[in-house]
Design goal:
- It is a single chain.
- The protein is of the alpha+beta class and about 70 residues long.
- It has one domain.
- It has a three-stranded antiparallel sheet with strand order 1-2-3.
- Strand 2 and strand 3 form a beta hairpin.
Length: about 70
C-alpha cells in the first residue's frame, strides 16, 4: 500500500469502538513491560478522552485506506 493512498475524514459516532482501540494502542509501554489490561481504559485520567464522546465540540479524524478501512485516528 502506498502512503499516498489514504483519506482523512471526520470521525462519526459509529467510529467510537475504533477510537477506543486507538486510545488503548496509544498507551506507552516500554519493550520490557507488558501491555496493561484493557480495563486501564476505565481509569478516569484515560477514559475522559472518549467517555460520552460525540457531544457538540468533540472532534476526531480517522485516516482510512482506499477501501475505507480505518488506519489511525487523531
Amino acid at each position: 500500500m502506498s502512503l499516498a493512498n489514504y483519506n482523512v475524514r471526520p470521525a462519526k459516532n459509529q467510529d467510537i469502538e475504533f477510537l477506543w482501540e486507538t486510545l488503548y494502542q496509544a498507551i506507552y509501554v516500554t519493550e520490557e513491560e507488558e501491555r496493561p489490561a484493557r480495563e486501564v481504559l476505565k481509569q478516569p485520567d484515560i477514559e475522559k478522552y472518549l467517555c460520552n464522546w460525540g457531544r457538540k465540540g468533540d472532534i476526531a479524524y480517522i485516516a482510512t485506506d482506499e477501501g475505507n478501512t480505518p488506519l489511525g485516528a487523531v
